[in-house]
Each structure stands twice: as C-alpha cells, then as structure tokens.
Amino acid sequence: SFLTDLDCAAEELVFVSDYVGFDLQFVRWYCVRFTNRDPFWTRQLDLMSYASALTHRPQPTHASRNVPDRWLEGSRHDHSALNDARSHASLAISMLRENRQEDFTQRVMGTTRFFYQDPSAPVPTGPPLLGSAALIVRGEQILLEERNDTEAWAFIGGGMEGAESAEDTLVREVKEETNLEVVACELIGAATDPTRIAHYADGGVHRLITFVYRAHVRSFEPLQVSAESKSVRFVPLVEVGQSIKLIPSQRPVLEIVRRAMGATSR
b/e per residue, 116-145, with b = 16+ CB within 10 A? Predict the structure, then answer.
C-alpha cells in the first residue's frame, strides 16, 4: 500500500506542499480514516513560506512564482496530480540543497553575496550601508583587490565607520587594504542604484551606496596585500569586467570609473 511504501522510505516523513494547510488536511484524513494513524504528525514544510524565508521576499501566492528559475529546473507543473507532486518535490529538494550549501559556505568560508539588477536578490533587512571606493591609477592601469569573501574582484574601498566622512573612509580603507597613503582625492561619482545589494555571512542584507573617488597616493612602493584580500594588483581598464571578473554590485562603480578615465584621457 501507499503507507507501507512510505514506511520503507524514511523513518520520519515530512509532508511538503505549496499549500500545506489545505493539502495536508485531506491526506491526513485519509491516513487516519483508513489506517488509524497519521504518518506525518507535525512534520510539514510549506514551500511558499520556505521560499519567502530563503529569498527574503514577501510570501509568493504560488510556490513556483517569484522564485529563482534555478529552483524550477526539471520540474513540470501542469495541474496533473503526479506531475505537480513531482514538481513540488523537485522544488523542495532544490531549496533544501541550496540552503544547506549557503549555510555551509557562509559559516565555514564567510562568503558574502553581491547583487545588481538581479530579480533573485534578497530584500534588505537593515538600513543602507554607505561606503567609498577608490580609483587609483598607474599609467593605463587601475588598482583592484581580489576579495577573500567572494570569488571576484573589486575596487579598493569599504563601508563607513562611526563618525567618518566619505573621504575619511576612503583614506582609511586604502591604507588598510593596500598600505598606500592617500594625499588627495576628488569625488567622481556615486553608485546609488537601489538594486545594489549585499548579503553578508552574518545574515544581514543591505542596500549599498558608494561614493567613488579618484585617489592620489604618495607612492606605489609600499603596496601590500592585507588579510582582507587574496591579492591586489594593477590591471588594464579594458580587462575589468572581461577577463577580470568584478562582483556584480561593482558594475555601476566601473561605469563611473570608465567615464572618469575617458574624461581624463581627452
């Protein structure tokens, strides 16, 4: 029988549905009516609630809506009972697998995820974070850091602390991350797109607002990599965003830099 198969499948069963409160009452009634027992007891997972928790978005009206396409790969939802059950199971497995992987990655490796114009980006859970980024030029090359918390590159910079001004933040971050001393700077733009989002390892999700400066340093000789970075190096501007992969939220910063470099070269 169906329940015998379930007993062989797992010691503890979990009922999964995109309308758990509605669907479970019928399944539970049949189980109790014909076998005098409930194999699921209190173990149930509502896919809509789980999707909302993982994406940090309002609860969708249907489990297959407002969720990343990667969670729906291979699923077929056509209102056929068997296909719908399989699609729900596939969706649940995708979410569970990604949640476990993200949890492991963030706990063990301290990964930060960055988003820009990405519909799967989580909704901010805290206030916007203000910061500064530095355009440091040597000849035709610009200085970038390869970050420790993500597999990509970024402009030198970081978030404001305490009562710092944007210029104070710039000077401090450049010193901390490169050991270079900023002696002068000019504001060349601000990256304020509301879709620039960071999801930090501690679970915080914030919108990023970044002031971009052309930074002049005293000397390039003391250039050193900090513990916050895997490496720092000067790269040709034309390679940035091509062979040099930037974190997504840095793309608007790159556009500001390209405009500034274009204006400088004329």
Answer: beeeebbebeeeebebbbbbbbeeeebbbb
Beta carbons within 10 angstroms of residue 12's beta carbon: 8
* β-strand pairing of 141-147 with 229-236: antiparallel
CA 64, CA 48: separation in Å to the nearest integer?
A: 9
3-state helix, strand and coil shares in percent for the chain, rounded to the nearest 5: 40, 25, 35
Unique residue bearing structure tokens 């970075």: 229
What does pTM read for this prediction? Answer: 0.60
pLDDT, tens only, 131-171: 999 999 999 899 999 987 777 899 999 999 989 999 999 99
Helix, strand, or coil (residue 34): helix
Number of separate helices (H) and strands (E) present in the chain: 6, 11
